[in-house]
Amino acid sequence: MNKTAKIISYIFDGSVISIPIFLTICLIVVDNKIEAVSWAFICLLFGTIIPYLYIVLMYKRREIDDMHIPRKEDRIKPMIVSSVSYVACLFVLYILDGPLFLKSIFAVSAVSAVIFTVITYFWKISLHTSWITFVVITFNVLFGRWMLLMIPLIPVIGWARVRIKKHTVNQVVFGVGVTTLTSFLIYYNYGFISIF
Question: How far, in Å, CA of 76 to CA of 177, rounded?
């Protein structure tokens, strides 16, 4: 079971699945497919590549010995870099008049990253379950309610993180809860979700 849990953890690491996810989203929200790929590149650059390269740099400098960064103390710097990168992407999207849905995505990402950075100073929280929760909510907003079928992915990934002792149940649950609240409020603010 541990092997299965490790495989699930690696597959659903944000840096891995963000590539097909951003490509899919951009191809849906942008009619011109060449422009869609360009927007996807911008999203991936700020949303994945820059944060990931910083983690690689930390690894090469031997500041960390695990790319998943299990120690919460080691997570602070890369989370700050991620927060800055997400805010920068949001700024670029507004400057270049990017698609509104992409702006909302990076608004959620930036706010969530800042919240998680602050929390991480005191407590380790699950970024895996945060990320998959964000994806499930985003796909439901974009494709409709049939995407609720993705919801079982959240407890499965949560189980995997607890099984391999990377997180406690509370850390997994809070990762889901914080992201759910942030996503709903920001998507509502951008007009993509009608709460009432």
Answer: 21
Burial class (CB in 10 A: 0-12, 13-18, 19+), 97: exposed
Instruction: Return the closest-CA partner of residue 58 out of 78, 72, 83.
Output: 78
| Helices 100-120 and 33-44, packing angle to 10 deg | 10
Task: Please return the burial class of 188, using the count of CB atoms within 10 Å of its CB with bins 0-12, 13-18 and 19+.
Answer: middle
**Any domain includes 39:** yes
Alpha carbons 69 and 75: distance in angstroms, whole number: 6
**Its pTM surpasses 0.85:** yes
Look at the chain and report how many structural domains it folds into: 1
Helix axes 100-120, 127-143, angle to 10 degrees: 160
> Is residue 118 domain-resident?
yes
Whether 194 maps to a domain, the answer reads no
State which residues form the domain around 164.
Answer: 2-189
Nearest Cα to 129, choosing from 97, 105, 153, 107? 153
Q: Which two tokens stand for residue 89?
A: 């992407």
Residue-wise pLDDT for 49-92, tens only, equals 999 999 999 999 999 988 878 888 999 999 999 999 999 999 99
